[in-house]
Amino acid sequence: MISDRGVRLGAEAARRLTQTGLYEFEPGLTDAEFTHIEREYGFEFADDHRAFLAAGLPINVPPEDGQTWSRPWPEWRGGDLDSLRRQLDRPVHGVLLDVEHNGFWYEGWGERPADGTAALATARHHLAEAPVLVPVYAHRYLPAGRGSSGHPVLSMWQTDIIYYGLDLADYMHQEFDEARGEVDESWNPRATALFWRDLV
Predict the structure, then answer these.
(1) Per-residue confidence at 116, pLDDT binned at 50, 70, 90?
(2) Cα–Cα distance measured from residue 58 to residue 48, given in angstroms and rounded to the nearest whole number
């Protein structure tokens, strides 16, 4: 059972994206499809993310020249399994890349092992305990978790993590609405996912 708040936020996010006219949509994911995806990849969608994808599945359009992402919308229906797995793994792999090559170390992991291989193994062990992040669009992510909603959308580029929306509905406005204007001082997201919130 998904929360009323999650249903409202997901429906509002879908409405905002539809209003931009930027994308076409396939019919939303069915309960059976959600069950299959969640079993295949070992996570549960947050309630608002689930409601958004149930309202309609955004379709990727052919990329423009110079576009970084050829398929920014995760192709949950009929997509390449390896590609989806890479999108799901990207936040953890990004942190590991910074541990290995850029000297990153999270203080909550204790003292960094002097040996690089041991440092990577320690980081990988701790990251296995971090909340799962689920791709929304390109490198924008929401925490997983049935029964939860209203998480800020995070833009993840290795350990360079910033807010991209107060919640999923606000994210659609921030990312896709060309008339959005400047963000005012009251825009103050608060990350909810343990570990990840400390990197914002």
Answers:
(1) very high
(2) 15
